[in-house]
Amino acid sequence: MAGLRERKRERLRADVVRVAAELAAARPFGAIRVRDLARRLEISEATFFNHFPTKAHVLDA
């Protein structure tokens, strides 16, 4: 069983993918900025990059 930190990390990654899909339904993925994702998730851009090296990596998750 994963610890609390790992579960929170996995939950945030899943939330990022979900929000990216929601935004991509309204506009092309290339038009979505990391800032847009971070604002919707109420996280910093630095936190986003702690979980994904680039925006494109969200597509692979």
Report on this model:
By secondary structure, the chain is mainly alpha-helical. The chain is built from four helices and no strands. It has a single domain (4-60), classed as Orthogonal Bundle (Arc Repressor Mutant, subunit A). The longest helix is centred in the first third of the chain and has 23 residues, at 4-26.
Task: Describe, in short, the structure shown.
69% of the residues lie in helices and 0% in strands. The protein is built from 4 helices and no strands.
Write the layout of secondary structure elements.
Blueprint lengths: L3 H23 L7 H8 L3 H7 L5 H4 L1
Structural class: mainly alpha
What CATH architecture label applies?
Answer: Orthogonal Bundle
Low-pLDDT regions:
none
CATH topology: Arc Repressor Mutant, subunit A
**Major beta-sheet overview:** none
Total strand segments: 0
Percent of residues in beta strands? under 5%
C-alpha end-to-end distance: 21 Å
Radius of gyration: 12 Å
